[in-house]
What does this fold into?
Amino acid sequence: MADDHLISEDETRRIAEAFVAGASWLGKPAWGKTGTGLLGAWHAPGWYPEDEERDFGGQEGSWSWAVKTVDPSGQKQVLSHEKVLEGVRGLVFGETDDPLDQLAIRKLKQWFTEPAAERHKLTLDDALSSRVCQQALFGRKVFPVGDEVSWSDKKPDWFEDQRPTAEDAS
It folds into this structure.
């Protein structure tokens, strides 16, 4: 796979920002950075303030975004580029029996398979961003996600595009 097709840090940060903004059940988020590559694996694992300067003696790796917060049980959580990618992969390649999840995941799969140039222009909605981040942090959906449609809220009409509109009736 060519590097120009990879999901960028900007894309995963947008997903995390939408999740954090809509997750009132999370503790106060603190944005920072985390080490990647050898830097992250051996010398700078974890979370650091964005403005902290550190020198690791020329070790390979770089810095990436990270946000730390606390879930309702008091467990500290760190969401990063790699964690969001885990959430995307878990949903795209995983299985679900929930029909609403299946619809949302179809949207995610389309986004996932778009050519990078097109995908960079697209933004996942807040509900899907939340679903991805919950998958990344907890391995499943824990809390309702934004504008998620419920069967009790609206009866889906799979043939809506075939029905006459009010304009057609006039």
